[in-house]
Amino acid sequence: MSTARRGGVGTPLKYLALLGYLVFLAFPLAWLASTALKTPREMASLDPTWIPRHPTLANFAEAFREQNLTQSAGNSLLVALTAAVLTVLLALPAAYALVRFRSVLNKLALAWVLVSQVFPFILVIIPLFMILKQLDLVNTRGGLILVYLTFNLPFALWMLQGYVRGVPKELEEAASVDGAGRLRVLRTVVAPLLAPGVVATFLFAFISSWNEFMFALVLLKDPDLATLPLTLVRFTGADGVARLGPLAAAALLATIPSLALFAVIQRRLTAGLLAGAVKG
């Protein structure tokens, strides 16, 4: 009886805690959407409201009129997609090799992967800029993609090696007996089983590249190459005061690709994260 009572009390509390957590996560996006739909007079009001009294799309029109958001979104999409695809293509065989071919070097490589995540990115910006300048990759999309690939790879490698460990060796041995080589085994046997992990890794790399600001600020000088985070900064004037209406509208539009990607692959992402937590 006491157990049933505890369960009866605990369940509503769990749902209440979950609801509070969801509200906490949704608050920034809800406030951003509310601000984007408000008139300048409502934003300047001393009595702010959640729901705009007179909703307007003028902020969106003004944002597109002031800045080339379409071109910036195209730049971000091209860079983020390319970096994410290359990250998965390179991390998958590397993770397989680290797990299946055990040696001292493999252990050192995994240790270095963890250590590399400790260093703050700000420490490597100047050396990285000098290297890319020597390679004539400064102010190019290719240079930015290379940077994102470099910084996404360690974490992607660490994620995928946990999934590879969960693939039974017997499946690979059976394919080898049938005459399949290592590359074919990886492509036809291992890769399909790693689909949830690949999706989770791809999403991590995409969002990391889509939202990145510091490297893009340092490496890109041509306005035509600017990514969305760089364009959003332009809504802040020289005096440091941001025009909240157009900025909120542009920021809201910048979140749409990430939200759409989440919605499309939500199930595979959840399965991938749970599987990685268990297998890792």
UniProtKB/TrEMBL annotation:
Gene Ontology annotations of biological process type: transmembrane transport
Major subcellular location class: membrane
Pfam families attached to this UniProt entry: BPD_transp_1
UniProt subcellular location: Cell membrane
Signal peptide: none
GO cellular component: plasma membrane
Transmembrane regions listed in the UniProt entry: 12-33, 77-99, 111-132, 144-164, 185-207, 244-265
InterPro entries on file: BP-dep_ABC_trans_perm (IPR050901), MetI-like (IPR000515), MetI-like_sf (IPR035906)
Segments forming domain ABC transmembrane type-1: 73-265
Membrane topology: Multi-pass membrane protein
Keyword Nucleus: no
Family note: Belongs to the binding-protein-dependent transport system permease family.
Name the record gives this protein: Sugar ABC transporter permease
